[in-house]
Amino acid sequence: MKNGEDISGMIAGTESPADEKEVKTEAVVEETTAVAMPSGVEVITMPRLSDTMEEGTVAKWNIKVGDTVAEGDILAEIETDKATMEFESFYTGTLLHIGLEEGQSAPVDAILAVIGDKDYRGRESRIAPLSSGC
Description:
2 helices; 10% helix; 29% strand
């Protein structure tokens, strides 16, 4: 019995403490496919740029596929529900894949881009599985 619980049924004799109401719960399982990333390849996802941000829109890409990217370079401008903000790279390498074109929106954590060694460019078998969810 919990503090503040209605015990009128127990006092009247119509309910005993052992009569617990069954609570039905249902587990929700999301099926995901894990993709092993080659060494030196980084998946860039849509960042959460504010506490209330649920999705973002790529307003402008500042680089294109094949360009060299350094840590700190501004990759894109992302529109949120409140503002347009610059999104910088945390990685150094070559832009191998763009997951969202300018004007497209996606939820937080969706694939935005892939940065890695330029030698991976053109190896669709290694990059293609990443774009399947976009």
